[in-house]
């Protein structure tokens, strides 16, 4: 394979296996257990906010930090550190960074309302970030540091180092489970291993949601208490209120003003926006007139109802969730990925919707509510995999037997896929939606991923990287899980011989053709079955490209290469 075409950041099989044998996630938990127990009172308590917990409501680390500051009778300070080298390492795109900054500005104002400063600063190089954090803790004479756990290998190792440095300085650290409804390591097989197949994992996960012994895993964490107004007179802490959130991060700026405005309309910032989008999914159902061009907060045409089995999006979800020619999903993924709303809150909302007074979550029911909770559960599942089997964040296939599959090195095909010029209408519509909105329906993510890997035989890691760079909701665990599923290399994967036919997928997902016509204007006037697979003469007439490959032949090539990895 051409060196310039190789995906970056692929660890060796040996390094991945070694990391799997002693996951940094478990090392962090051990470091927290060995933490300082009774530090000096100090002058402050620090909450360290990360990219995945951009909210005040139902934020466990923030709630614990607030409680500690109240107990110590000292101010609570919030900290956010921009780390451009981490964004590069994790393939963060400008859209995700812009979304983050917009939400940080909302949060700074909301926290200031309760006299809590949010100090947003930047640091490089990333390898010295632990020392930088400790320097701030010392500057502010902090007794405690609280943060929610990030599950990527690099971030876990960083936090382990922070624990070590803090312990040496007699500062207490608490790293808290918040992203997952149920923490990694709590849902295990009988022999104590993490599950690698979703269905049995789900059956084991569900009982953990039921309150036991007075503890409710779905309970909302308390909002932070207000600091005394006297904090504004503090020479060190008072000035933190006036330090603004940067407009951009160098190297991650959205240069196109139209794109910046479009994304702010598609994905408005703030917790209030996230809550309204959730309510819209739970209580109204309407087909949107212009796919991808409407405000997600716009009112539906139907009257609100609290019966989830009637005219609601969630009520229809079981039957139409794979349709892309109608507004069938919650569109909450950007808000869940950035932690602007918690997964716990989403599940609590379904209990309230169904009037379930026993607080029993039944995701096994074949209903819209049940299916949607299952989709939320997938987020937990893939994060559990990331934490317990860190090889997946090291560029390795979970199934090493497929590490030797021979990939194509066709730069023209890769670029055509990225730009939506493959000659397969449903693939091109989906890729252009991603370019336009920074988001794509999950069925289309599966379809486009399968096409890149199985039809074009291009390394799945190149597609994984592109999605992370393109999407507002880029999340390593979910993105990697989806790509490895499509590539048949991950946990609970599609069998290698299961290869989506993009034309039949198109007919199922977009039977009206409205989705294709909207995002592929070359085909805007095409009606009938030809919208899914235009004949060559029609494609040529309309200026639409012919298919890059013939699907039946590409399918046989993929099966052959997967069946005998290492051979062409």
From TrEMBL:
InterPro entries in alphabetical order: Crypto/Photolyase_FAD-like_sf, Crypto/Photolyase_N_sf, Cryptochr/Photolyase_FAD-bd, Cryptochrome/DNA_photolyase_1, DNA_photolyase_N, Rossmann-like_a/b/a_fold
Residues covered by the Photolyase/cryptochrome alpha/beta domain: 44-181
Gene3D superfamilies: 1.25.40.80, DNA Cyclobutane Dipyrimidine Photolyase, subunit A, domain 3, HUPs
Binding site for FAD: 317, 329-333, 372, 375-382, 473-475
Pfam families: DNA_photolyase (PF00875), FAD_binding_7 (PF03441)
UniProt keyword annotations, A-Z: FAD, Flavoprotein
GO BP: any one term: circadian regulation of gene expression
Cofactor note: Binds 1 FAD per subunit.
Annotated region (Disordered), positions in chain: 297-318
Annotated site residues (Electron transfer via tryptophanyl radical) in this chain: 407, 460, 483
Gene Ontology MF terms in the entry: deoxyribodipyrimidine photo-lyase activity; DNA binding; FAD binding
Membership in a protein family: Belongs to the DNA photolyase class-1 family.
PANTHER family noted in UniProt: CRYPTOCHROME, SI:CH1073-390K14.1
Name of protein: Photolyase/cryptochrome alpha/beta domain-containing protein
């Amino acid at each position: 394979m051409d060196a310039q075409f190789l995906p970056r950041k692929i660890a060796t099989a040996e390094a991945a296996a070694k990391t799997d044998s002693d996951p940094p996630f478990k090392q962090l938990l051990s470091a927290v257990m060995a933490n300082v127990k009774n530090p000096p009172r100090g002058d402050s308590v620090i909450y360290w906010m990360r990219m995945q917990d951009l909210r005040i409501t139902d934020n466990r680390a923030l709630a614990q930090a607030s409680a500690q500051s109240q107990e110590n009778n000292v101010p609570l300070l919030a900290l956010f550190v921009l780390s451009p080298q981490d964004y590069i390492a994790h393939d963060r795109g400008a859209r995700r960074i812009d979304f983050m900054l917009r939400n940080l500005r909302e949060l700074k104002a909301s926290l200031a309302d309760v006299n809590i400063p949010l100090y947003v600063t930047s640091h490089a190089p990333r390898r010295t970030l632990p020392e930088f954090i400790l320097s701030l803790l010392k500057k502010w004479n902090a007794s405690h540091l609280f943060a929610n756990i990030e599950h990527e290998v690099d971030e876990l190792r960083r936090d382990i180092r922070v624990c070590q440095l803090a312990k040496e300085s007699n500062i207490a650290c608490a790293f808290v489970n918040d992203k997952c409804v149920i923490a990694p390591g709590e849902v295990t097989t009988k022999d104590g291993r993490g599950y690698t197949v979703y269905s049995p994992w789900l059956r084991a996960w569900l009982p953990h949601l039921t309150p036991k012994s007075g503890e409710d895993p779905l309970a909302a964490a308390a909002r932070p208490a207000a600091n005394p107004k006297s904090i504004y007179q503090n020479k060190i802490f008072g000035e933190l209120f006036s330090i603004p959130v940067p407009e951009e991060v160098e190297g991650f700026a959205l240069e196109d003003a139209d794109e910046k405005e479009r994304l702010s309309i598609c994905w408005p910032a703030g917790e209030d926006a996230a809550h309204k989008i959730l309510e819209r999914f739970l209580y109204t159902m309407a087909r949107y007139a212009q796919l991808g061009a409407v405000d997600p907060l716009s009112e539906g045409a139907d009257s609100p109802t609290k019966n989830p089995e009637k005219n609601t999006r969630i009520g229809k979800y079981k039957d139409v969730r794979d349709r892309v020619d109608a507004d069938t999903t919650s569109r909450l993924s950007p808000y869940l990925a950035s932690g602007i709303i918690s997964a716990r809150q989403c599940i609590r909302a379904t209990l309230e919707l169904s009037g379930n007074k026993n607080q029993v979550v039944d995701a096994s029911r074949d209903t819209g509510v049940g299916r949607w909770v299952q989709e939320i559960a997938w987020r937990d599942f893939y994060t559990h995999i990331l934490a317990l089997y860190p090889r997946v964040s090291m560029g390795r296939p979970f199934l090493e037997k497929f590490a030797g599959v021979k990939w194509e090195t066709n730069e023209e095909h890769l670029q055509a896929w990225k730009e939506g010029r493959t000659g397969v209408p449903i693939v091109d519509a989906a890729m252009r939606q991603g370019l336009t909105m920074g988001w794509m329906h999950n069925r289309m993510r599966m379809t486009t991923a399968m096409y890149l890997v199985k039809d074009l035989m291009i390394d799945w890691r190149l597609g994984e990287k592109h999605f992370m760079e393109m999407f507002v909701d880029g999340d390593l665990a979910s993105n990697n899980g989806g790509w490895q599923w499509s590539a048949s290399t991950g946990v609970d994967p599609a069998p290698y011989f299961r290869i989506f036919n993009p034309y039949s997928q198109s007919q199922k997902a977009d039977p009206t053709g409205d989705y294709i016509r909207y995002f592929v204007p070359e085909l805007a006037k095409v009606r009938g079955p030809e919208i899914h697979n235009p004949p060559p003469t029609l494609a040529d007439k309309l200026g639409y490209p012919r298919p890059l490959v013939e699907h039946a032949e590409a399918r046989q090539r993929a099966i052959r290469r997967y069946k005998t990895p290492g051979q062409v």
